[in-house]
TrEMBL record:
Keywords from the UniProt entry: ANK repeat, Repeat, Signal
Species whose genome carries this gene: Atopomonas hussainii
Protein name: Uncharacterized protein
ANK repeat boundaries on the chain: 299-331, 349-381
SMART domains linked: ANK
Length: 410
């Protein structure tokens, strides 16, 4: 029987001829890695900046970046990390981090035996999940990515375990451990870490009340008990509790109570109102409590933009009736600080809700905005009007609606 130990020893004996080849050609092919898995335990120099002294084929089908069963986890990790590859924002080290990350994914795919043992990866994973759980409460889009990653990891874990049993001849226990450690590589990447780097920039775990609401309904009595036990709870903590209650569809009485004690009501990059688009009763409660309907996120987007993108005409009508500004603009490039420009990479500053609707919504949505005095003559920083957005995105019905409105206004 071929064991993980004998496979690794065989790779060590085969490493010498590869080393001689690498010294002259500085290339590593998929064939090299398949025949010599000990390559992954040698000191391969992948560089520290834009370039690398070693050329590696990172696209081997065995890589976790290529395996169908790990594709969703891989793609979501990339989205969550959201790292920009240009040196002006993040430095050339991102190229090296990408290479070492994909080297680790190759190792996990071609030599999973080497993942066994070592430090406790579960403790590190738990910290990363805790970090991502807090990160997910910054905006609804981040919450959706977090939930999707959770589901993808749960789905990939047994499939990858079975894959390791059949392709690497690992025992069930070994395969399960290797699967956990392999998926952790992508999890750490999502959390902002890179192979060989220090841990993710962890934040404290979410308050217990927030964690509870993610798993079970909370009664008003339980909430009042928590509030009495934490009379000096920081505003940020109460805000997290409110957003969590909205996300997890907690009873409306619980949401109402949190609204009354949340001061200020509008906090964070995206306020509780943004989270309430998926919870209509909570949205109404927040509006009745005086939530700022024109509260803007880091690049100037209000909740109206998101409602338009969702295509919910009734909800957009509710927001407009409550005072949403149909001519509120994104921030301009000069208003965005350097770090924010890197974070958001806004190409069309000064966009308006009508422009957004011309690109993302329907003609009835445009008509609703026009009824509320949306400005058809407004132009963004690239000198685009709403009509330009409709044309460039091939939204013929939207283009027609805007042209008809212009003709009628003449």
């Amino acid at each position: 029987m071929v064991t993980a130990r004998t496979t690794l020893l065989a790779g060590l004996f085969l490493l010498a001829p590869w080393a001689a080849k690498a010294a002259t050609e500085a290339t590593i092919s998929c064939t090299d890695m398949r025949s010599n898995p000990a390559i992954f335990t040698s000191e391969v120099d992948l560089g520290s900046g834009h370039g690398s002294p070693t050329k590696v084929d990172y696209h081997c089908p065995e890589s976790l970046a290529q395996l169908p069963i790990t594709q969703t986890v891989y793609q979501l990790s990339e989205q969550i990390r959201n790292q920009y590859p240009w040196p002006g924002c993040s430095g050339s080290i991102v190229y090296a981090q990408w290479r070492y990350y994909h080297w680790a994914l190759l190792q996990a795919g071609l030599a999973p035996q080497q993942l066994l043992g070592g430090k406790n990866s579960r403790a590190h994973s738990d910290k990363t999940w805790a970090y991502l759980a807090r990160w997910a409460l910054q905006s609804p889009s981040q919450q959706r990515l977090y939930q999707a990653l959770r589901a993808a990891v749960d789905e990939a874990s047994p499939a990858l375990t079975q894959h390791y049993q059949s392709t690497a001849q690992l025992t069930p226990a070994e395969a399960a451990e290797a699967s956990e450690r392999a998926l952790a590589i992508m999890l750490y990447w999502a959390g902002g870490a890179a192979p060989g780097s220090s841990d993710t920039h962890y934040t404290p775990e979410l308050p217990g009340i927030v964690q509870t609401m993610a798993t079970a309904p909370l009664t008003l009595e339980q909430l009042n008990q928590w509030l009495s036990q934490h009379p000096d709870a920081e505003p940020h903590t109460v805000d997290l509790a409110l957003k969590s209650a909205i996300i997890h569809q907690q009873p409306l009485a619980v949401i109402h109570r949190l609204i009354t004690v949340s001061q200020p009501l509008d906090q964070g990059d995206e306020s509780a109102l943004f989270f309430a688009l998926d919870n209509p009763p909570a949205l109404t409660a927040l509006l009745q409590a005086g939530a700022d309907i024109n509260y803007r996120n880091g690049f100037g987007k209000t909740v109206l933009f998101y409602a338009i993108e969702r295509g919910d005409i009734a909800q957009v009508k509710q927001l407009l009736s409550a005072g949403a500004n149909p001519n509120q603009r994104y921030l301009s490039s000069t208003e965005l600080e350097e770090h924010a420009m890197c974070q958001y990479n806004i190409q069309h500053g000064q966009r308006t809700p009508l422009m957004h609707a011309a690109q993302h919504a329907s003609a009835p949505m445009l008509k609703l905005l026009l009824q509320h005095n949306a400005d058809t003559q407004a132009r963004d920083e690239q000198d685009w009007s709403a009509l330009d957005y409709a044309r460039h995105n091939q939204r013929q019905s939207n283009e027609k609606a805007l042209l008809l409105h212009s003709t009628a206004a003449e």
